[in-house]
Structure formats: C-alpha cells, structure tokens
User: Fold this.
Amino acid sequence: MDLGHLSAWDPTPIDRAAYEGPDKEEACTETARAMAQTLVNQLFQLPGEAVKGGRMAQLPAAKTPLPREKPLPKPKPPTKWEKFASQKGIQKRKKESKVEWDESSQSWRRSHGYKKANDDNDLPIVEAQKGEQVGVCVFGGKYWNAFCAMKGLRKAMHIRMHTAQRASDKRRPLRMHVCVEQLEK
Assistant:
C-alpha cells in the first residue's frame, strides 16, 4: 500500500480458477472493492482536518518510485555567447524598472521623461526654506534657469513666427502672436 500515490495492491497469489471461471467479473469486482476499502480505511487513519464538503488528509511521502516514460534530458551544451561570457567574466544584469513610487502623487510613475516621478519642476508651490528672507524671489537657483530658458524660447518662437509670416502668403492670418513687450517686462 502506498498512500503517497494513493495506490493499493494485493501481494497474495492469484486464484487462477476464480479468474478464469464463469464468475470472473464478480471475482475482479470483489478484489477491487476490497482493495479500495483498505485504501479508504488507511486514508481515514491519517491526520487531517474537516473542510467544507468532506475531510482533507495530509498524505505522506510516496514510498514507491515510479519509472519515467522517457530518460532524463541531457544538459544542453553552452552556446558561443555563454562560453565567451564565462571566459570574460560577463554576468547578466537585472533590468532596471522603468517606474518608481512618486511621494507627491502617491502613485507609480515613470523614472524619466514626461510626468516623471519626484520631479522638482512639477511642484506647484515652492516652500520657503529656513533662513530665507520674506519677499525675495523664490525663482533662484534651479528655478531661475528653467524660467530664463522658457523666456528665451518664447522670444525665439516669436521671431520664427514673424519670419515665417513674411516668407509665406500675406493673405493667411498669423495663428500665434506673442508680444515682445510682455516678455521683456
């Protein structure tokens, strides 16, 4: 009896006359019923717990080794790249994640690019730091560079639009107009 595989067999010698006679179906059924009953009795002696719809028993490890249908697969020979990598000491690196946790929005965002996580330029309000004077421009340092770049970009766009307008047909209206006087203030 092997409870690990839920299998049972009868080691007693077979009564050849019972299995060859006219009642051979009855003899097979009786032997199968007896073995199944023995297996079920052994299962109910195992430690287990009651669950909805019946009882769950903890099966022991299997005693009988089962033969494999096919032999164990042979290890594959290393490829040219694997040989080269082992000679040079190259190891695989784990791919870095493209998203990270953003504390300000409490969500997962990209690490780089548009709407990236923990972006300093994305802050709508700049908090005053200790030691700063009241009324002093907060666009100093990192904010000032971004502000100047944006101002220069607007000026360049204004010049390009006027140049394009002059070069193109005069009848088409200018779609975008930025006043230089407003930028210089």
